[in-house]
Design goal:
single chain; two-stranded parallel sheet; about 280 residues
Length: about 280
Amino acid sequence: MGIVNVTPDSFSDGGRYFSPDRACQHAETLWRAGADILDVGGESTRPGADPVPAEEEWRRIEPVITWWAATSHLPDCPRPKPWLSVDTTKAVVAERALDAGAHIINDISALRFDPDMVGVVRGAGAGVVLMHMQGTPQTMQVAPHYEDVVREVRAFLADRVAWAIAHGIAREQIAIDPGIGFGKTLDHNLELLAHMETFTSLGCPLLLGASRKSFIGKLTGREPADRTAGSLAVVAWAILHRARVLRVHDVAETRDVITLITTLQRYKSCPVSPPTPVG
């Protein structure tokens, strides 16, 4: 899942792809690099970010969605057209995006912030990502606290999955996200990563969004633009611990990690027969 931030203030690349032309060019670059999904967002959810009105959020992302909908293939690119995900908590934005052809709504509030969101997702039969967050983007990093972060995040996601199903969304439409960096300290993030298998038992694909996040900077001392190596280390860990979707900035590099790990896994399960001795 390649990240397309059409915002002036996202933590890693805020402002870099804010203009419609640059946002569409970046989406094309991620498609060519091997993204299976493009995740387009018009509202930053970094700690302390200010909310964006729905009309402004839609104004930002509409050009990318329009470009994606009108583009069936890229010249000299054999990769299939990626699915389109929209990173929003607002039902009106989600509805417009789904009407334009989007497949997935990536909701950091797990369908809690807008009471109309569940009906929009249900009516479209869309995929939905339910993420854990303690508080809101404005408050989530103000002294986050848990008695047992793994148990509490798992219980929250189990409750939200059950709630979504009770409101007409099929389990097959749902992916879950433990919300790395959303209301968590360094230790909370590491505990969640160390126990990823706990979440796969909920019966929904596990999405992990850890790319370039601050916990990597705290461990390595690197700024967001220099956290590719650390992000890829987390990608490798996630693949080996059953993550199904990886939300990343560095698509080509992540694709290489996936290729190498899955190839080695195949060799481990079905080793190549040794050569026949000569003579």
